[in-house]
């Protein structure tokens, strides 16, 4: 039996970031001016080399970590989780032109004792980014 060899040197890769925890000031209530726990989740897709040889061949998720854990905690309070979601989506698409799709969600695990978490999530394609980004 003979199989056709895949001539493409690229493959669609999917990167997952699950429950990346950060402490930020986010929310519309006065008590949310104090940093609170926020969990960030992302799925990032794009065409990357079939057999990556170095980090340059891959989506470098260190950039997401640096923004979420390094930058956001130092920034002023924002009222809406949606603001941070859009900021992260713009960051992902800007830092790597190979990304074709991303889904980003933020949730607050400590808001309601009756709920595991409350959050928002949105997904963009590269075309959405071009159309919607600042």
Could you characterize the architecture of this molecule?
The chain has helices at 62-71, 81-95, 126-132; strands at 10-24, 36-49, 99-108, 118-125. With 134 residues, the protein is an alpha+beta fold. It has a single domain, classed as GTP Cyclohydrolase I, domain 2, CATH 3.30.1130.10. A 4-stranded antiparallel β-sheet has the order 1-2-3-4. Helix 1 (62-71) packs antiparallel against helix 2. The longest helix is centred in the middle third of the chain and has 15 residues, at 81-95. The chain is elongated, with a radius of gyration of 17 Å.
Notable characteristics:
24% helix, GTP Cyclohydrolase I, domain 2, elongated, 3 helices, single chain, 4 strands
Helix and strand topology:
Elements: E1 10-24, E2 36-49, H1 62-71, H2 81-95, E3 99-108, E4 118-125, H3 126-132
Antiparallel strand pairs: 1-2, 2-3, 3-4
Helix pairs in contact: 1-2
Strand content: 35-45%
Mean pLDDT: 92
Which regions have little confidence, pLDDT < 50, spanning 5+ residues? Answer: 1-7
Strand order of the largest sheet: 1-2-3-4
CATH class: Alpha Beta
Please state the oligomeric state of the protein chains shown.
Answer: single chain
In CATH terms, what is the architecture? 2-Layer Sandwich
* Estimated helix fraction: 10-25%
What's the CATH H-level superfamily name?
A: GTP cyclohydrolase I, C-terminal domain/NADPH-dependent 7-cyano-7-deazaguanine reductase, N-terminal domain
Q: Taking Cα atoms only, what radius of gyration do you get, to the nearest Å?
A: 17 Å
Structural class: alpha+beta
Q: What is the N-to-C succession of helices and strands?
A: EEHHEEH
Estimate the global geometry from the Cα principal axes. elongated
| Biggest pleated-sheet summary | 4 strands, antiparallel
Under CATH, the topology is which?
Answer: GTP Cyclohydrolase I, domain 2
Query: How many structural domains are formed by the residues?
Result: 1
């Amino acid at each position: 039996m003979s199989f056709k060899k895949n001539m493409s040197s690229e493959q669609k890769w999917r990167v997952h970031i699950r429950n990346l925890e950060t402490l930020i000031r986010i929310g519309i209530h006065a008590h949310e001016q104090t940093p609170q726990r926020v969990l960030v989740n992302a799925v990032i897709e794009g065409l990357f080399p079939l057999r990556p040889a170095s980090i340059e061949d891959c989506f470098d998720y260190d950039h997401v970590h640096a923004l979420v854990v390094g930058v956001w905690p130092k920034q002023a309070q924002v009222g809406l989780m949606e603001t941070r979601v859009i900021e992260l989506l713009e960051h992902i698409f800007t830092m790597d032109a190979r990304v074709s799709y991303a889904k980003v969600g933020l949730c607050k695990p400590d808001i309601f004792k009756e709920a595991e978490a409350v959050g928002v999530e949105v997904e963009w394609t590269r075309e959405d980014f071009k159309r919607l980004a600042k």
